[in-house]
Each structure stands twice: as C-alpha cells, then as structure tokens.
C-alpha cells in the first residue's frame, strides 16, 4: 500500500488525533510521507522498526508528547542535520520525560564523508538518548565493524587523518617533484651560464693581455670639468691601475675626454668616437655634471648606442636634478658612490667589485654585439 498509494498512506491516521501508540514495524516501508504525523500530537510511542527506511526526512516536529521512537533495523547509513535538530528540539521540550530513540542495528558508515562523520559524532554525544544494546550501534570502516559508543569515532578520525595526509601527499608530491625538476634544470642552466661567463671572462682577459681586445678601452669615464681634480687625480689613476692588475696588462684601459679627445675635432664627434672605442661608459654624476650640456650629450650618446652604463655618484644628487635619461638609469640600475673621508675618500662598493662589474659588463657587451 505504501509504495503504490502513498497519498492514501499519508492520510491513514490523520483523523486518529487521540492515538498515542502507533506501531508500523515489519511492514517493508521504504518511505514515510513528510506530513504523515502533523495531526497526531499525542503520540507517546511510535514504532517504525524493521522496515526499509533509508532516510528520516518525515516531519515529527508536532509530536511533542513523544516518549519513545523505535527506528532500529532500517537502511539508514547517516542522519541529516535537519533531522538531528528536530530530535534535539523535541528532547529539549520534554522537561519531565526524556525522549528515547532506538537507532540500533543500522548500516551506519564510518568514513571521512561529512554526513557519516557527523552522524557518528551525534550518536556518540547523545548516548543517553538512545536505547537498545550499545553493542548494536555499529558502523563500517573499510570492511571493519566498529562500535560507535566505544572506538568508532577515534578510529575514524585517525583513519581520516591518514587519508588527508595521503591526499595532501598525492597533491603535493607531484608539485614538489616538478619544482625540484625545475630547480635542477635552472641550477644546471645557471651553472652552464656561469661556466660560459667564466670562459668568456678568461677569453677577455687573455685578449687584453696579448693586445687582441677589439676595443681600445674597457671604460669611457664621462665627468664634468668642475670635478676634474677629483676624477683626474684620484679616480681615473686608481681605476686604471685596478683594471690593469685584474687583466695583467700595462695598457691604458680607461678613456677620458681630457686625455683622449683629439684637439681640433668637434666635441660631438669625439664623444661618439670615445664611446664607440670603449666597452662600458662610466658617468661620474654630480650636480655640476647634471647641469652641463656636453655631459648630457655624452649621456644621450651612450644611451643611444645601447652601451652598458655605470653610474658613479660623486655627491648626493636628487632625482629631480637629473635629466630624463639619467633619472631612468638611476631608477633602474645599481650605482657606485664616492664617499669623502679623512683619508681622501673611498669608493663604495670597493674598487675590486667595481672593476669586476666593468669586466663582466664588457663580456656581456661582447656576447650581444661581438667585437
């Protein structure tokens, strides 16, 4: 009847409003109509054991007099949150008499599924509400039968922790392996690049030493005539000697306008020639340098030739005091500074680092443009 005439089944006890005991056990019932018990507010005992119920989605919120609810031996594997809330509300409303529920001998599942886990927790938490033998409240975890009131919750949580670790490993291990592989490839490429750079650096040193270097100079140093005392008397001699020491040559490696501009030639032509004859350009930047027209032309010519440029600040210069090109270089590249001290001053970073940078930039210039 329940299967084929569900609408009539729903009305079966609608008019029996004074009925306080109803037993529908062992009737093969697979589903209780949602509104079947709306008019039976005086029910004290409701028996639905030994049926085929797979869910408890019928409305029992009106059964405020209910004392015992028999639901054992059905096909329920988990209990939804709304049903749990309804039963807890009924239990809380019955102050003088506890609501007793028999949910034993069900095919409960112990798994990491939220519904299954919450069902086990709820039964375990409300153990005083449930009747029947405690050994009859069991769940299945990976083909193992566990007692809900004893070890089921602990074992399920432990199992789920292990499964989470496995899942995390399954996700993270491939990522880690890929990252390691990428890191290995990058490392090998880096080592290869370093090896190539060392070889090119050695070739450069050999070329300079035997006189085969395709450029006349390693660096062209551009400066303002107002700074000539410091640059000509201190910076150029020290820079040239440090480069000679690193390259093993006695030839002049630093070009400057005061020493290498040809008398009688146009300044613009000489700037272009010295820039072309040098692998790297060093700009000795000062406030005076930023104000001189010819200094700005040297900056522009070097920039137009796409030559490596190293900024050497002789004093503090604010960005708004620089020209557009110089300001762009200042914001993009690391620079060196001349620091005045009681010993006449020093450069930061030191001469060795500056000269290594010049030689490496020379190698890079040779790689990209050739001799």
Automatic annotation (TrEMBL):
<dbReference type="InterPro" id="IPR000157">
    <property type="entry name" value="TIR_dom"/>
</dbReference>
<keyword id="KW-0472">Membrane</keyword>
<feature type="domain" description="TIR">
    <location>
        <begin position="215"/>
        <end position="358"/>
    </location>
</feature>
<comment type="similarity">
    <text>Belongs to the Toll-like receptor family.</text>
</comment>
<keyword id="KW-0677">Repeat</keyword>
<protein>
    <recommendedName>
        <fullName>TIR domain-containing protein</fullName>
    </recommendedName>
</protein>
<dbReference type="GO" id="GO:0038023">
    <property type="term" value="F:signaling receptor activity"/>
</dbReference>
<keyword id="KW-0433">Leucine-rich repeat</keyword>
<dbReference type="GO" id="GO:0005886">
    <property type="term" value="C:plasma membrane"/>
</dbReference>
<keyword id="KW-1133">Transmembrane helix</keyword>
<dbReference type="InterPro" id="IPR035897">
    <property type="entry name" value="Toll_tir_struct_dom_sf"/>
</dbReference>
<keyword id="KW-0520">NAD</keyword>
<dbReference type="InterPro" id="IPR001611">
    <property type="entry name" value="Leu-rich_rpt"/>
</dbReference>
<dbReference type="GO" id="GO:0007165">
    <property type="term" value="P:signal transduction"/>
</dbReference>
<keyword id="KW-0812">Transmembrane</keyword>
<feature type="transmembrane region" description="Helical">
    <location>
        <begin position="169"/>
        <end position="191"/>
    </location>
</feature>
<dbReference type="Pfam" id="PF13676">
    <property type="entry name" value="TIR_2"/>
</dbReference>
<keyword id="KW-0732">Signal</keyword>
<dbReference type="InterPro" id="IPR032675">
    <property type="entry name" value="LRR_dom_sf"/>
</dbReference>
<dbReference type="InterPro" id="IPR025875">
    <property type="entry name" value="Leu-rich_rpt_4"/>
</dbReference>
<dbReference type="Pfam" id="PF12799">
    <property type="entry name" value="LRR_4"/>
</dbReference>
């Amino acid at each position: 009847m329940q299967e084929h005439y569900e609408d009539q089944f729903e009305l079966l006890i609608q008019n029996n409003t004074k009925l306080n005991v109803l037993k529908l056990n062992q009737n093969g019932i697979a589903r209780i109509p949602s509104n079947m018990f709306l008019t039976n507010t005086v029910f004290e005992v409701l028996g639905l054991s030994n049926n085929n119920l797979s869910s408890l989605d019928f409305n029992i919120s009106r059964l405020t007099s209910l004392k015992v609810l028999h639901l054992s031996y059905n096909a329920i594997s988990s209990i939804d949150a709304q049903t749990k809330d309804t039963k807890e509300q009924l239990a809380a409303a019955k102050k003088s008499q506890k609501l007793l529920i028999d949910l034993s001998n069900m095919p409960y599942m112990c798994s990491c599924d939220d519904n299954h886990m919450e069902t086990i927790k709820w039964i375990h938490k409300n153990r005083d509400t449930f009747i029947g033998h405690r050994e009859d409240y069991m769940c299945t975890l990976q083909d193992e039968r566990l007692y809900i009131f004893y070890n089921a919750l602990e074992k399920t949580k432990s199992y789920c922790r292990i499964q989470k670790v496995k899942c995390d490993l399954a996700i993270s291990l491939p990522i880690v392996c890929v990252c390691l592989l990428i890191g290995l490839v990058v490392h090998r490429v880096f080592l290869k690049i370093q090896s190539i750079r060392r070889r090119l650096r050695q070739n450069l040193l050999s070329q300079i030493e035997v006189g085969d270097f395709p450029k006349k100079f390693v660096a062209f140093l551009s400066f303002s005539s107002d700074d000539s005392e410091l640059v000509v008397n201190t910076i150029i001699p020290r820079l040239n000697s440090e480069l000679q020491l690193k390259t093993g040559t006695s030839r002049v490696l630093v070009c400057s306008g005061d020493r290498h501009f040809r008398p009688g030639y146009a300044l613009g032509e000489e700037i272009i020639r010295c820039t072309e004859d040098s692998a790297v350009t060093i700009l000795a930047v000062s406030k005076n340098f930023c104000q001189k027209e010819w200094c700005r032309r040297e900056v522009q010519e070097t920039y137009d030739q796409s030559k490596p440029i190293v900024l050497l600040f002789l004093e503090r210069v604010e960005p708004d005091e620089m020209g557009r090109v110089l300001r762009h270089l200042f914001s993009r590249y690391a620079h060196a500074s001349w620091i005045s001290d009681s010993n006449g001053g020093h450069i930061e970073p030191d001469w060795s680092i500056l000269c290594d940078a010049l030689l490496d930039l020379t190698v890079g210039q040779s790689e990209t443009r050739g001799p």
